[in-house]
Specification:
With 122 residues, this protein is an alpha+beta fold. The protein contains five helices and four strands. Strand 3 and strand 4 form a beta hairpin. Helix 2 packs antiparallel against helix 5. The longest helix is centred in the C-terminal third of the chain and has 18 residues. The radius of gyration is 17 Å and the shape is elongated. It starts with a helix and ends with a strand.
Length: 122
């Protein structure tokens, strides 16, 4: 396993930000509450590119979109790049929402541990 990780690092396939090896097997899943909708992404793009949203429009955003809007750790240019990347992922997959904690996951899980739908990404 260590050889594989060394090779992956040298090929710049990972930066080891989210690697955990402890011998257990965990299912990767996306929280249904940590998603951003296509509508929120388009409103945020409008906010950064065209004109700022009003206070009422900001209140209508979902919690995750408001959290993204108020994030001070990223510049506006970085946020616009991220929003257009998310927009591209949604356009490519045909979905209306995107999980923020693991948008590279292939499957969304439901409460009964069944597959809700497949996710296809680049």
């Amino acid at each position: 396993m260590s050889f594989i990780l060394i090779v992956a690092n040298r090929m710049v396939l990972t930066d080891f930000e989210h690697v955990s090896i402890d011998g257990t097997i965990k299912e990767a899943y996306n929280s249904p509450f940590n998603i951003i909708k296509e509508k929120d992404i388009s409103l945020l793009i409008r906010h950064y590119v065209i004109q700022e949203l009003t206070k009422d429009e900001i209140k209508k955003l979902r919690r995750t979109a408001r959290k993204f809007l108020n994030d001070k750790s990223k510049s506006d240019e970085e946020k616009v790049d991220i929003l257009f990347y998310w927009w591209h992922l949604l356009d490519y997959s045909g979905q209306v929402s995107l999980a923020l904690n693991d948008y590279d996951a292939r499957l969304m899980k439901t409460k009964d541990k069944g597959q809700k739908y497949l996710k296809y990404f680049i």
